Structures are given as structure tokens and as C-alpha cells.
Amino acid sequence: MSTAYVGRYVGRFAPSPTGLLHAGSLVAALASWLDARAHGGRWLLRIEDVDLPRCVPGADRLILGQLAALGLLPDESPMWQSQRGAHYAQALARLEAEGWVYGCACSRKDIAAAIAAAGGALQRHGELVYPSTCRAGTQGRPLRAWRLRSTAGRADERPLLIAWHDRRLGAQAQDLTHAVGDFVLKRADGLWAYQLAVVVDDGEQGISHVVRGEDLADNTPRQIRLQQLLGYARPAYLHTPLVLGANGEKLSKQNGALPVELGDPLAALKQAALPLGLALQASSLPEALAEAVAAWPYRLPGPV
């Protein structure tokens, strides 16, 4: 099913091929497709395979097959991040030339020790908040990463507050300096960080609306900061409800979520629609997709 592109809406779904789509990632895929179709926009697919050691061979093609079986077809050929290293390198070089990026020699152990010595909290959502140890230089130690300064300016140490609006969650704000710290854009092994890759790709693909799971909302301030520094327009954001397992935790590949069973695509589609507030009644896949588009609850007012 496709709707003619009549506005400036460009959306995308960007799965990581570390495994097949599970119930949670299918909800995110369906939501992004529905939002694009409900607004007469284009829907793109991007395979986020920058972390190649974690990717499962062939999973990308299987994911595309899962989406096709459900009628979720993109309007252009998919993009693979693993083929776009030159674009990320150009963005990093620009940020470094402008004084926003510096080399970091700290190991995770070093960071934990520095935080503990300063009497700070060690973890935030399982991550260490970087204490800016290497801003003044690495004293010749081997580099482990390239980091982006999280302060208000290159020579301005004031905290940087990022405020944004989510179409479902409402007003959001984060003190990027104290909540996250200077974050990684590239690792010493040559792997690009998700934050840089997604911003460059969204910017170059002209993504106007990002629809994804609520677990990724915390990444948004970092991405907004990179958009500001690289001169990209800020997309509109919608973070969808999470799908939880029987233990109350978010379904994910890391905690053993099983691939979606597609023996009955219509049943799988109806199940994925429920967390989005859609109880579909149609008796065929095309009818169910059309019903879901018509009933999409996050429709924007006015033209897009």
C-alpha cells in the first residue's frame, strides 16, 4: 500500500541487524510506516550496521523480508550505514576543525575511577557520565575514542540545556553536560558511534519526522546538539510506547526477545498495532493497513 507523496514529510525506520525483528521493534516499524502514510509522506529504510562485530550475517535481508511480508514497503532502496563511512568522517573532521571534538585516552575503568574520586554517581542508564578528563589533553597516551564537548561553547564551560518537544511525551529537557557528558563519536577501532551516524544520515536523507521507540528518547538531546553543530534541521520526534516482556522489562535482542512469528502476517500486524492504540478488525492485510492509517492517533494538524 502506498500513498502519493504530497508534502515535505520524510520518515524512516532504521533497524540494527543484530537479529531479526521482535515484537518491540515491529511496533516501532509499524508506527513509523503509519505516521508516514497518514501524512502522505515518504518512508525510507536504513540498515544501521555501523557496529559490524555485533551484526548477524544475513539478518539485514531477513529483516527486509519480514517487513515485506507485512506490507511495510519503503519508497526507496534501503541504505546501509556500513557503506557511509566517508560521510561520517567528513562530519567528524568538520567538528574537529571547529574545536568541538577531542581525542580521549580513558578506559571505562579510568572513567569510573575519576567519577568515584570526585564523589559522583557512577552510572546513568547503565552508562558512565564522562567527567571530561581528556579535554585538556591526553599526555601522549593512546587514544580510545573521539568525543564531542557537551558544554555551551568550545571555551564556555557552562552547562548545555537541550529542550525539545515529543509528539507523544510532550515537553522534554536534559542538561547534556551533567546528564551525559562529552560523548563518543568514533572509537579507536574505527567504529562510528550511533549518535553521529544517525544524525548525518537523517540530515542527508532529509528526514523530517522521526518515529521510534521510547527507549531511544534519551538519545534525542545528543542528536539535537549534533544537528545544531552540523547545520541540519531538527526533525519532529514521536517516541512510541515500549513493549514489555513477562518480567516487566523492555523487549530487546539483549534480553532474549524472540523473532516475530510471521506464519500469519495479519495476526502479527494486529498484535503490533495494539500498543499503538489500534484494535484492528479487518480480515485481510491490505485492509488492516488501510484501517490503521485511517485510525492513526498521532496525526498532525494542518499540512506537513
UniProtKB/TrEMBL annotation:
A Gene Ontology cellular component where this protein is annotated is:
cytosol
In chain numbering, motif 'HIGH' region lies across: 15-25
Q: Where does L-glutamate bind?
A: R12, F13, A14, P15, S16, E48, Y194, R212
Q: Does the keyword Metal-binding apply?
A: yes
> Per UniProt, which keywords does this protein have?
Aminoacyl-tRNA synthetase, ATP-binding, Ligase, Metal-binding, Nucleotide-binding, Protein biosynthesis, Zinc
Summarize where ATP binds, as residue positions. K253
Cofactor binding remark: Binds 1 zinc ion per subunit.
| Known EC number | 6.1.1.-
- The short motif 'KMSKS' region is annotated over 250-254
> Which sites bind Zn(2+)?
C104, C106, Y130, C134
| Cofactor(s) in the UniProt record | Zn(2+)
Q: Which residues form the Glutamyl/glutaminyl-tRNA synthetase class Ib catalytic domain?
A: 12-259
For molecular function, the Gene Ontology terms on record are:
ATP binding; glutamate-tRNA ligase activity; zinc ion binding
Q: Name one GO biological process term.
A: glutamyl-tRNA aminoacylation
Q: What class of enzyme is it?
A: ligase
Q: Which domain of life is it from?
A: Bacteria
* A Pfam family that the UniProt record links to this protein: tRNA-synt_1c
**What family is it from?**
Belongs to the class-I aminoacyl-tRNA synthetase family. GluQ subfamily.
Record's function text = Catalyzes the tRNA-independent activation of glutamate in presence of ATP and the subsequent transfer of glutamate onto a tRNA(Asp). Glutamate is transferred on the 2-amino-5-(4,5-dihydroxy-2-cyclopenten-1-yl) moiety of the queuosine in the wobble position of the QUC anticodon.
Name of the protein:
Glutamyl-Q tRNA(Asp) synthetase
What is the protein's species of origin?
Answer: Paucibacter sediminis
Name the gene: gluQRS
